[in-house]
Design brief:
Length: 374
């Protein structure tokens, strides 16, 4: 069994001149302080829990050395999954507030479980979580649209699945791409190959790269801009071009990035996600600068304000959120290379990028060329 805090030889990350290991530990503790007795990690005390942000919180707890709290969070996810593999979109104090299932949320457990493996090398934990990961990704893949994107949600009524909202989101589908790569890595680890996930991943990556016009237009949101890079579907020169294309739209020098292009409001979580996207493509200087600039959101006891309305010079909303704190911890780990999970957004430990085969969008596909060869 590995040491309780994390793998032997690892310590808490620190970013020189920006964030110390003690401060990272304090921020992880602030997440644990808001965790509910059930293991759920709500956005903030009294607010709702969704499984995506919950898993991100669990990842940050693990980086911060809070192993028991992280594993209680994963047990909560295991206990609340529905039979079809989805989770309700919102829980409040243990009760379902919105029963709809969102594909991006239900996929992300795979990333968290792979991250846990990287840090803990606990095969028993992976085997315990694997059926939950498998059901979640099977459900998500079932929502793939003909052009390759993933339908963003399915409604529920009277405890039964209903209408699928057959439109795809760039940010959500980009995150699912990362989740599928984590899922395939887990499948290889437990020796249960999932070729259908690989086919779905190839079609999904192709859609994100080549068919942006077929997704819902959410271009006013910064997540639509950087998530194809963060999720790993866009890399290389195309990634640098994509980041450059909207840099001046969203980045507010000295403060962070806007959540929405039309509002004078910078947010910590989005800024830290962009930090990790920049780190993933080797733009380290920009990543470090942004990470340092967003620290004005740090509050007492390691907590973080959600955002800052800069014309009014006020933090808004008046809340400290677990997902902002979690993004800070994960960004610090990525920049510091502090743990074995530090590359989770860089993706070097995930399954390889998926081949673009079995396309249904009308684009040329290598398998179609081979089909005519006798």
């Amino acid at each position: 069994m590995l040491p309780d805090r994390m793998q032997a030889g690892q310590g808490l990350p620190h970013v020189d001149g920006v964030l110390t290991s003690a401060q990272v530990r304090e921020t992880a503790a602030s997440i644990a302080a808001m965790q509910e007795p059930s293991g759920a990690i709500p956005w903030t005390i009294g607010e709702h829990t969704d499984v995506w942000n919950h898993v991100e919180g669990a990842m940050a707890l693990l980086v911060g050395g809070r192993v028991e709290a992280a594993e209680r969070a994963y047990e909560w996810a295991r206990a609340t999954q529905r039979e079809d593999g989805s989770w309700p979109m919102k829980f409040v104090a243990g009760a379902v507030e919105d029963a709809s299932g969102e594909s991006n949320m239900s996929a992300y457990l795979a990333v968290g479980v792979w991250h846990h493996w990287l840090l803990r090398r606990d095969l028993a934990f992976v085997q315990r979580m694997w059926p939950t990961v498998r059901r979640g990704l099977d459900w998500v893949v079932s929502l793939q649209l003909p052009f390759g994107g993933i339908a963003w949600s399915q409604e529920y009524a009277d405890g039964r699945p209903g209408r699928v909202n057959a439109e795809a989101l760039v940010a959500g589908s980009s995150s699912i791409y990362q989740s599928l790569r984590a899922g395939v890595a887990l499948a290889d680890l437990v020796d249960e190959p999932q070729p259908e996930w690989e086919l779905a991943g190839g079609r999904l990556g192709h859609a994100v790269r080549e068919h942006r016009d077929l997704f819902l237009d959410k271009s006013q949101f910064s997540m639509d801009w950087y998530y194809p890079v963060l999720g790993g579907a866009v890399r290389g020169e195309r990634a640098h071009e994509l980041i450059a294309s909207e840099w001046d739209t969203f980045v507010v020098p000295g403060l962070g990035i806007r959540c929405v292009s039309t509002n004078p409001w910078v947010t910590g979580a989005e800024t830290c996600e962009l930090v990790m996207a920049l780190d993933a493509i080797g733009a380290r200087d920009r990543a470090l600068r942004l990470f340092a600039e967003m620290q004005h959101l740090r509050a007492e006891e390691g907590r973080y304000w959600t955002g800052y309305v800069y014309p009014d010079q006020v933090n808004w909303p008046v809340e400290h959120t677990t997902y902002t704190a979690a993004a800070v911890v994960l960004a610090a780990d990525a920049l510091a290379q502090g743990t074995a999970g530090a590359d989770i957004m860089r993706g070097t430990s995930l399954a390889p990028d998926f081949a673009e085969i079995a396309l249904e969008c009308g684009c040329p596909s290598p398998d179609a060329d081979l089909a005519g060869v006798s």
